[in-house]
Design a protein that fits this description.
alpha/beta, 29 helices, five-stranded mixed beta sheet, single chain, 686 residues, five-stranded parallel beta sheet, Rossmann fold
């Protein structure tokens, strides 16, 4: 009698399994799940980062394609030596009176800047090795012993700025021999460091990330970034033990491409952060599997937890709707799971996925305007003018739409500089295709751009083509499902969901108040006589830059030793991101901002911050002062507060306040800079 073969085991899920699922944060820096075993998905970018041949050093992708996740993975991987740099030097270079960046990248001053970045990167690696006792001072050779002051006493930004100013000063005074000496010194330091580090067979990975957090978007800042990229390429080719890896947003990378006459030297070192559909499905599925025991095989979890959408798996609809971007896919799936949990469903139903579309669409539209504000300031105003129109437009309708934009005084006031360059219909269509706003229909097929660098170029546009606004944006814009061929009698709407502004002010007033902050901050001297003015400026920063997370702002006054001390207290209403992390970690339902209009902060200032902490409002204080840098002894005070009260003091300087203001001017909804300050503080007090 033939023996029956057993079929594959059928996985039976408990009825309440959906309530156990937490997909994690869509922003990698806040995602606690990301580093759990078996969650990270191997992508071509990760393979290139771990490639011992070291041929790639630029990792480029759109927002939400996994740059930060990749840096976190590498930073926590065993058997790797990793140094992470979040540079702020680009704005410092453009604002320095002692260092003028050249207009021509082939100028000597540009080569001096490249050498400054190379030397700064090497010193940062040596500083980390000395700090962790992986390297000892006695192992340093003469050139590195002479460099120890820069290695141990300077931050990366101050170090590069000092080197660049020194090289520029030699050129400005016509001292070519001095300039050559500095260039040769930089080469010698790089060479000797590589030899000293060769005692350990492991390569030091230098992860340079969050480039756009603290720069002003000027042409000079782009030149400084270009110098960083050339420094990375040269070091990758000549250093055995140091490998720089630069993580860039696509829109910033394109600005370098547009001005660099030697871009071909950089292009061969680029990795595009592309994701296949299979990798995206696996990313979500691995997170879905975490609470399951036994775990279904990959490929089956979607079917067990998500209903079919028509005759197709839910994953197919979700990937198409989210334009195959990892962050968007994770955000949408999280919203769908939350809807199912709230409705007490046993599976994620079609109704749950449809409910998630509304919330996701609004979020995606705001994010799109923010993502490209660097290249196309206030582009959200242009996108907002599509509100209430149709999902599809003919080329003549697009032409008429452009003419209406050119006659719109508000649009031209904020977008005219770049809009005039793309006023031709084919250029306007290519622009909105390249940012993922719409696709191009040829016959029955609509082609949308993907996430990779090579997918930004549109297909051929003919007179019979139509453009189709991506379905993920249609609900936020309240679009009608039809084709518009003529806009002659249609008035473009001004209302919409894109512009979040505080205190019921319009965009013009908002921009004017932000610019006034920058002017007032530079014009306000330090000292007791100007305490009130400095307090007012900090209050304006909180009101205008943090209104999405902090509200109900009130002044808080206390008499201390005969002197009036002023600060601000704000309610923390965040539901995700950095400020939610502050609530979770420090019970910071209220956030105190302490204003010190002086260039030096003392022990008494930290004692005062400690005094404010209690169980009622939380254990977080933001301390603003006018100094240029945060000193080591400041971290010692913060460490004491952390050990005693499990509290945190974050220190902000003028340049940090300016970063927040510049981001608000460009309508960037970003928390990365303050998160970076928090991460730096944590590392220094741990």
């Amino acid at each position: 009698m033939a023996k029956k073969t057993a079929g594959p085991a059928v996985v039976q899920l408990p009825k309440d399994v959906l309530n156990r699922i937490i997909l994690g944060q869509s922003f990698a820096e806040y995602d606690k799940i990301l580093m759990q075993k078996g969650v990270f998905v191997v992508t071509p970018a990760l393979q290139a980062a771990l490639d011992p041949n070291r041929s790639k050093c630029f990792f480029v992708g759109r927002r939400g394609t996994g740059k930060t996740a990749l840096t976190l993975y590498l930073s926590n991987a065993p058997n790797l030596r990793v140094v992470t740099i979040h540079p702020e030097v680009f704005t410092a270079l453009t604002g320095s009176t002692d260092c003028a960046l050249p207009a021509d990248p082939r100028h000597k001053a540009f080569h001096g800047l490249v050498a400054s970045f190379k030397r700064g990167i090497v010193d940062e690696v040596l500083a980390e090795q000395l700090r962790t006792h992986s390297l000892y001072p006695r192992q340093l050779v003469d050139s590195l012993i002479a460099e120890r002051n820069y290695i141990e006493s300077y931050t990366f930004d101050l170090r590069v700025l000092a080197f660049a100013e020194e090289a520029y000063d030699a050129l400005k005074r016509g001292r070519d021999k001095e300039w050559l000496r500095l260039m040769n010194k930089a080469k010698q330091i790089v060479k000797d460091a590589d030899i000293v580090l060769g005692a350990d067979s492991r390569t030091n990975l230098v992860l340079i990330d969050r480039i756009d957090d603290a720069w002003d978007g000027s042409d000079s800042a782009v030149l400084a970034l270009m110098a960083t990229m050339h420094a990375c390429v040269e070091m990758s080719a000549t250093c055995e033990r140091i490998r720089p890896m630069l993580f860039l947003r696509e829109n910033i990378f394109e600005r370098v491409r547009a001005i660099d006459p030697e871009f071909t030297r950089l292009e061969t070192c680029v990795v595009s952060l592309d994701w296949t559909r299979q990798q995206l499905q696996e990313m979500v599925e691995r997170r879905l599997q975490l609470p399951l025991n036994p775990k279904p095989p990959l490929g089956e979890t979607w079917k067990l937890l998500f209903d079919m959408v028509g005759s197709a798996p839910a994953s197919e609809m979700i990937l198409d709707y989210c334009q195959q971007r990892p962050r968007d896919v994770l955000t949408y799936c999280s919203l769908a799971v939350e809807s199912a949990q709230a409705s007490r469903h046993q599976r994620v139903t079609v109704e749950d996925m449809d409910a998630a579309k509304v919330r996701f669409s609004e979020s995606r539209l705001k994010d799109l305007g923010d993502e490209y504000s660097e290249n196309f300031p206030q582009i959200q105003l242009v996108l907002n003018r599509f509100h209430g129109l149709a999902t599809e437009f003919t080329v003549p309708a697009v032409t008429a739409f452009i003419q209406k934009l050119l006659a719109d005084s508000e649009v031209m006031s904020y977008c005219g500089q770049w809009l005039s360059r793309v006023a031709a219909p084919h250029l306007f269509i290519e622009l909105l295709y390249s940012i993922g706003f719409w696709g191009i229909r040829s016959g029955a097929v609509v082609e949308y751009r993907g996430v990779g660098l090579r997918s930004a170029s549109p297909p051929t546009i003919s007179s019979s083509s139509t453009v189709v606004i991506h379905p993920s944006l249609a609900r936020a814009l309240d679009l009608q499902a039809k084709v518009i061929g003529d806009l002659e009698d249609i008035v473009l709407q001004r209302e919409g969901l894109l512009l979040e502004l505080p205190e019921a002010i319009d965009l013009e007033q908002y921009q004017e108040r932000l610019r006034r902050i920058l002017t007032d901050l530079d014009a306000t001297p330090t000292g007791n006589d100007y305490d009130d003015e400095y307090e007012r400026i900090v209050g304006e920063v909180i009101r205008l830059c943090f209104f999405r997370w902090l509200n109900n702002l009130e002044p808080h006054r206390q008499d201390n030793e005969g002197r009036v001390i002023r600060d601000w207290i704000a309610a923390n209403v965040a539901e995700q991101g950095f400020w939610q992390l502050m609530k979770d970690k420090y019970d910071a339902c209220q956030v105190i901002w302490e204003c010190k209009n002086k260039s030096l902060i003392e022990a008494a200032d930290f004692h005062q911050a400690e005094y404010y902490m209690n169980s009622a409002i939380g254990r977080l204080v933001i301390l603003c002062f006018r100094g240029d840098d945060i000193e080591k002894h400041h971290y010692q005070h913060i460490r004491r507060i952390s050990e005693k009260l499990k509290g945190m003091v974050l220190i902000l300087r003028d340049r940090d306040l300016k970063v927040f203001v510049r981001q608000a001017i460009n309508q960037k909804v970003k928390e990365e800079h303050i998160r970076q300050l928090f991460d730096t503080t944590i590392r220094n007090v741990s």
